[in-house]
Design a protein that fits this description.
Layout lengths: L1 H10 L4 H38 L3 H35 L1 H34 L6 H6 L1 H23 L5 E3 L2 E3 L3 H5 L4 H29 L5 H35 L1 H8 L10 E8 L2 E8 L2 H7 L20 H30 L8 H29 L2 E3 L3 E2 H4 L6 H31 L17
Antiparallel strand pairs: 1-2, 3-4, 5-6
Helix pairs in contact: 2-3, 2-6, 2-8, 2-15, 3-4, 3-15, 4-6, 6-8, 8-9, 8-13, 9-10, 9-12, 10-12, 10-13, 12-13
Length: 457
């Protein structure tokens, strides 16, 4: 064991561990804000359109409030996104140096999408009481589209890291780069669909949780009921679609990343058919503390009850991912997602039978908890995806040890990043709570960060 640890310390770059920690912190923090950039404009559009069609001041008031919340989150996300863009080069020069031409095109399109989203968010915020109602509503469409396109570009890069294509390696040099092949690689669309639906799950449950908390405090007016119902409908559709998309995405792993699949399933040896193991950890090379369901591992992993799942023993030890982290993260994501899907089914079945659970305090408490659980499921999904790809940054092309910087001073950078994200988290909480208090006090026309305050005639 001492020899193994000594070898790791000798072979790993000095900056590998702090680079991993800092990137995990930045991505884990930013991904939540990215979800709001993808899903929140669609919810605002639905609420705003409802207000116009039905001449409903409550709907218009909610759309106006949500747009101001979106502006605050967008501004904070711009900071964390800028930090990430610098971190890609500073922390991973072994990736961005050789593969800069490969990744430049998707990142450039993501940057353009960011500016388009910012422009139309500003127009939408400034347009209240200034633009004709339907023209004002249409400003949300390019804003929402830009958020989706930008997210797709980032996800396409991650999908390319899982299934690299669009280039050739000649004598260690990257040549014949095809940017469109990178952007439209075979894994991008399905992985994006998984992330896109996941964003609606996160935002839907988080926003519904906010209004559920208000209803628990006795605020049962139309404002809170509508503020709960619309995002909960979005969350319902997403929660029911996500298991299907995730299952299709998981089936591909048998061909694309079988070692990740083996870690997901806690399969130490090849099994046909493979059982489903619920829970469990790998202790001394053997799975322990799990519940086994025969054959269902093959169905979930391969789409058939009799197909084999390759075991970890078929891969060199140096090519195996950290099994316990990958397995626990994957099963946590699946467990939370299944629980959320069950919750929305219970709600709508009860409503169909004439019982409205939105007035039930226990159900509202569950919705309040569902918001953080949806965020946790999102984080676990990304942990399973990224840790499960290890030890590769670019699958079977570039190892993480080759991509990381050898700068030993990165712990200071990591400490600075921690302070930055703590500060932004506290700042966001203070600003949003202040806005909520002023709204409850009757101040509707809060100043917009992208426009001047309204002046009385």
């Amino acid at each position: 064991m001492r020899t193994l640890l000594a070898d790791i310390m000798v072979t790993d770059p000095a900056g590998l561990l702090p680079a991993r920690q800092q990137m995990a912190l930045s991505l884990g923090w930013h991904i939540v804000l990215a979800c709001f950039g993808v899903a929140f404009p669609a919810m605002i559009f639905v609420m705003h359109r409802r207000g116009i069609v039905r001449a409903d001041p409550v709907s218009l008031g909610l759309a106006r409030r949500w747009s101001k919340v979106s502006a605050v989150l967008f501004a904070i996300g711009a900071v964390s996104g800028t930090v990430l863009s610098f971190e890609m080069g500073l922390l991973w020069p072994g990736l961005m140096g050789p593969f800069g031409d490969v990744l430049g095109f998707p990142f450039a399109l993501e940057g353009l999408s960011f500016f388009v989203e910012a422009i139309f968010l500003g127009i939408y915020l400034y347009g209240w009481d200034r633009l004709p109602p339907r023209q004002h509503l249409l400003m949300l469409l390019p804003m929402a589209t830009a958020g989706v396109v930008g997210t797709y570009c980032v996800i396409s890069v991650n999908a390319w890291m899982n299934m690299p294509t669009g280039f050739r390696m000649v004598d260690g040099e990257v040549t014949d780069v095809d940017p469109w092949a990178v952007l439209l690689n075979s894994g991008a669309l399905l992985q994006f669909a998984h992330m896109w639906v996941g964003a609606f799950m996160v935002v839907g449950f988080v926003v519904a949780a906010v209004y559920a908390a208000g209803m628990l405090r006795g605020r049962r007016d139309e404002h809170h009921r509508l503020g709960f119902t619309v995002p909960f409908v979005f969350a319902t559709v997403a929660a029911l679609l996500q298991p299907v998309i995730g299952h299709v995405l998981g089936i591909r792993l048998g061909q694309t990343q079988p070692s990740k699949l083996a870690a997901f399933e806690l399969a130490t040896t090849t099994e046909q058919p493979a059982p489903l193991r619920l829970g469990g950890l790998l202790i001394d090379g053997q799975p322990r503390w799990f519940v086994e369901i025969p054959q269902w591992g093959s169905f979930i992993a391969r789409g058939s009850f009799d197909k084999p799942v390759r075991g970890l023993d078929t891969f060199p030890a140096a090519d195996q991912p950290p099994v316990n982290i990958t397995h626990v993260a994957f099963q946590s994501m699946i467990g939370i997602g299944s629980l959320l899907a069950l919750g929305v089914v219970v709600f709508w079945v009860a409503r169909w039978r004439g019982r409205d659970l939105s007035g039930n305090r226990w159900f509202l408490r569950c919705v309040v908890v569902a918001g953080p659980l949806a965020v946790l499921a999102l984080e676990c999904g990304w942990i399973a995806t990224e840790v499960g790809r290890q030890p590769w940054t670019v699958w079977q092309v570039l190892r993480t040890t080759e991509a990381a910087t050898d700068n030993p001073g990165l712990w200071w950078s990591f400490a600075g990043a921690c302070l930055l994200y703590v500060g932004m988290t506290v700042g966001a909480g203070v600003v949003l709570r202040s806005m909520a208090r002023r709204w409850r006090a009757g101040e509707e026309d809060l100043p917009s960060p992208y426009g001047p305050q309204r002046q009385d005639a």
